[in-house]
Amino acid sequence: MAAAQPPGSAPPGVLYFDPNPTTARLASAGLQLAGYRVYHAPTQEQAVAIAAAHGPGGDGSIVALLLDAATSPEVSGSVLRALVQVPGAADLPGILLISRANPTPIPGAEELPALKRPFTIPALLKVMRETIDSFVPPSERPDQTSEAVRTRVSMLFEEFFPSLRVSTEELEQFSEALVQEGDVPTPAAGISVLADLATTRVESLLDMLSRDGVRGVVAFERDNAYGRVHIDHGCIRLAELEGGDDDLRLGRFIVEAGFMTPEQIEAVAGSPDDKRRVLGQRLVDEGHLRPGELTQVLLNQAREVTCSLMQWTSGMVTLAPTGELSPLAAQTARSRAELRISDALLDGLRRLADNAEMGPHMPAVDDVYVRVDTELAKLGRHAFSREELATLEMLNGRNAIKEVARKTRTGAFAVAKIVHRLTRANLVRRRVLPVRA
C-alpha cells in the first residue's frame, strides 16, 4: 500500500509511461487502488508535459517515474532521456518494466530498479513502495563536504588571495562545488555524452544514437589512439582512426579499390599543399579521383574504422552534436551511396564473433609467423585463395602481422583470420626465437 497521507493531503503521484493501453489500464488500476495518483502518458510529448506540470518543477505531486521498457526499449530510452531534461525530474526515483528476454533494455539505466513482465499487482506495489521509501530527496541528502575540506579551502584562499574578503557562506558553497565537481565528470562545452568504454559497449552507444537520429561527431580516445565517427540520422558519413595497430589511412582503401598505386599516393601526400587540404579533397581537386570514387573509399574506410572501434574495451567516448557536417562528410551525404550504422554494426559484431571463436589462438599484431613449406608443397597453389597466397608470401619469419597487413594493403584483423586458419591447418607456425646458451 502507499504510505499513509495526512487528512486532506493529495495522494502521491506516479508518472507512468506505457504506449500499450491494455497493460497501462491494468497497472494503473492497481496503483490507484493502493492510493497512488497515476499520470498515464502513452507518448513522449505527454510524458514531458506531465513531468513539467506535476514534477518537482511544477506542483510537486509526482514522487516516482514508472517506465515501460519492454514494449519498445528504444522509445522508452528516448523518453527517459527527455524526462531527465525536465527541471527536477532527474532527482525522482525511477522504475523500469522490462521483459525477461531483455533485462537491460536501456544503456546507462542498468542501476534503476526493474520489474519483469508479466508481473502481479502486489509485486509492482512492493517494488514501488521500496523504491520510494529508500529514496532520499536531494535536500535531505547528507553533506559530503567534510570540515577538513572547508578548512583547507579557507587556508588556500588566505594564502593565494590575502586581500580577498570571502564570507563563510561563500566558502562553504565553493567547497561543496569542488566536492561535486570531483565526484561527477563534467563534459566539456559542446559535448552532450561522456562515457567510459570499460562500462559502455560501442555498439550499444552507436545503436542508441542511430535510433535517435543524432547528427554529430563521436570521438574515441585510448592511450595514443584517437578516432572520430561522423554520424548523421542513422548513417555514418565519415570515420578516421589515428594511432592504432591497423593501417586505416585513406591511402590503403584507395589502393584496395584499384584507383591509384601506393607510389602515386605517396607522391601527392609527400608534396606541399599551400591550401592545406585534406588528402581526399586534394586528390579530387587535382584530378586523381572522381567525387564518386572518393565517396566509395571514404565509406569503405568508415566501415573498417567502426569495426575496429567496436573492439575497444577501454578509453573514453564523447558525442558532440553538430548542426552541419564537415565538408567531406557532407560530400558523402550528397551521394547516393550510404553506410547505415546498423550495417557497420553488423559487420563489427561478426568480427567480434570471429574474435571470440579464435580466442587465445588469435594472432597478435606483433606476432611473426613462418611457412611450413613441406606441407604447403603437398597442396599446391591452387588450394589457396588470392588473399591467402598474398599472406603466405609475407610469412617468411621477418614480418609481423601488422607489417603483413600494411604491405598487402588489408586489415590486421583480416590477416589474423587467414593466419589463424593456416595455423590450424598446420601450414604456418609462430616463429620461435632460438635460445642462446
Explain the overall architecture.
By secondary structure, the chain is α/β, with parallel strands linked by helices. The protein folds into four domains: 126 residues, Response regulator (Rossmann fold), CATH 3.40.50; 37 residues, no CATH class; 163 residues, no CATH class; 69 residues, Arc Repressor Mutant, subunit A (Orthogonal Bundle). Helix content is 45%, strand content 17%. It is built from 17 helices and 14 strands. The strands form three sheets. It has a six-stranded antiparallel beta sheet with strand order 6-10-7-8-9-11. α3 links the parallel β3 and β4. α2 runs parallel beside α3, α5 crosses α6 and α11 packs across α13. It starts with 12 loop residues before the first strand and ends in a 7-residue tail after the last strand. The N terminus is likely disordered.
The main β sheet shows up as: 6 strands, antiparallel
Unreliable stretches (pLDDT < 50, length at least 5) are 1-8
Morphology:
globular
Q: How far apart are the first and last residues' alpha carbons, in Å?
A: 80 Å
Chain oligomer state: single chain
Helical content class:
40-55%
Evaluate the radius of gyration.
29 Å
- Give the strand line-up of the largest sheet: 6-10-7-8-9-11
What is the beta-strand fraction?
A: 15-25%
Number of helices: 17
Total domain modules: 4
**Using DSSP, what is the number of strands?**
14
The mean pLDDT is 82
Q: Structural class, please? A: alpha/beta
Task: List the keywords.
437 residues, 17% strand, six-stranded antiparallel beta sheet, five-stranded parallel beta sheet, 17 helices, disordered N terminus, globular, Rossmann fold, 14 strands, alpha/beta
